[in-house]
Task: inverse folding
């Protein structure tokens, strides 16, 4: 994906890299959330998935 | 890239951020059940220990209660004994009270009688005082009469004294006249005959003094047969004198005589006379002596 230069008179659109960044941010948010949840589970129950 | 894809990417991103925020918020605010479990477990263990302690204390309290109950039972038994004893004492006190009431009634009767007697005695004292006053008045009156009589007696004594002086003077004159008459008659060889009263004097009959029986009696207190001496239990205090003769007897049997030689206030010693030869008739201690048989 490469930035597309729009000609004068045409509608301005964002480059495709922007959506890639947005997806990366979403992935990072989800990843951070998962890490946080895993950390909380480990600190509170001394395990991540196992039910004692 | 199509617009739909872009929209979906944006929506996916927004929804992911939203859901992740919710999840983070939920997880951050979720309860720490492990910590709660530990705290509850600790509370349970402590409650269990408290229960054990409470049971121990309960058992101790029950044992102490039983001991106190036994002690209280013993105290109750002793108190019941004391109550019975006190009931007995109360009954005795009641009897003593009744006796005291009877004594009080008796004493009240005696006091009433005594009061009556005291009133009678007071009346008698009043009568006696009145009689004494009367007697004192009579005594004063008799004293006055005695003074008058004494004064009259003194006057009569003075008259008698004057008469005695007159009689003495008459006797002297009579003696002088008789001497003169003797001298006058002697010249003629005559003498005066003794005058004799015209009426003879009568003398009162004298009564002879009554004879008194001595009648002394005593006992032999000591005997000395070698020297023929004996001591008797009476002396000068009873009227024993030296030279008196006592008769010594034993059971209506004559033993001998004792002639008193020396006398003391409470004893006397005498000479044994008319002794007999038989040994059974010799004087002994405690034989009776007397002046009269």
Result:
């Amino acid at each position: 994906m490469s930035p597309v230069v729009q000609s004068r008179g045409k509608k301005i659109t964002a480059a495709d890299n922007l959506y890639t960044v947005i997806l990366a941010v979403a992935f990072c948010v989800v990843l951070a959330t998962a890490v946080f949840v895993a950390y909380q589970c480990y600190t509170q129950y001394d395990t991540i998935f196992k039910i004692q | 890239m199509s617009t739909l894809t872009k929209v979906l990417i944006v929506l996916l991103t927004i929804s992911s951020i939203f859901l992740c925020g919710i999840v983070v918020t939920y997880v951050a605010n979720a309860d720490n059940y492990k910590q709660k479990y530990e705290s509850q477990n600790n509370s349970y263990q402590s409650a269990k220990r408290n229960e054990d302690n409470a049971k121990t204390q309960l058992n101790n309290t029950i044992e102490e209660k039983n001991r106190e109950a036994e002690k209280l039972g013993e105290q109750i038994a002793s108190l019941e004994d004391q109550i019975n004893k006190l009931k007995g004492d109360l009954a005795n006190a009641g009897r003593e009270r009744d006796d005291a009431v009877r004594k009080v009634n008796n004493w009240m009767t005696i006091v009433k009688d005594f009061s009556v007697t005291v009133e009678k005695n007071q009346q008698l004292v009043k009568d006696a005082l009145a009689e004494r006053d009367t007697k004192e008045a009579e005594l004063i009156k008799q004293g006055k009469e005695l003074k008058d009589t004494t004064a009259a007696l003194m006057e009569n004594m003075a008259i008698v004294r004057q008469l005695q002086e007159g009689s003495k003077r008459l006797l002297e004159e009579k003696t002088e006249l008789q001497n003169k008459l003797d001298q006058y008659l002697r010249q003629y060889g005559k003498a005066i005959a003794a005058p004799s009263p015209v009426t003879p004097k009568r003398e009162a009959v004298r009564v002879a003094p009554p004879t008194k029986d001595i009648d002394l009696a005593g006992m032999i207190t000591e005997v000395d047969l070698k020297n023929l001496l004996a001591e008797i239990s009476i002396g000068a205090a009873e009227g024993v004198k030296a030279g008196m003769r006592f008769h010594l007897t034993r059971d209506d049997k004559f033993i001998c005589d004792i002639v008193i030689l020396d006398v003391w206030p409470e004893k006397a010693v005498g000479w044994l006379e008319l002794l007999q030869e038989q040994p059974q008739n010799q004087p002994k201690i405690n034989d009776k002596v007397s002046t009269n048989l």
Q: What stands out?
A: Chain A touches chain B through 18 residues (CB under 8 Å). Chain A has one helix and no strands. Chain A has a mean pLDDT of 79.
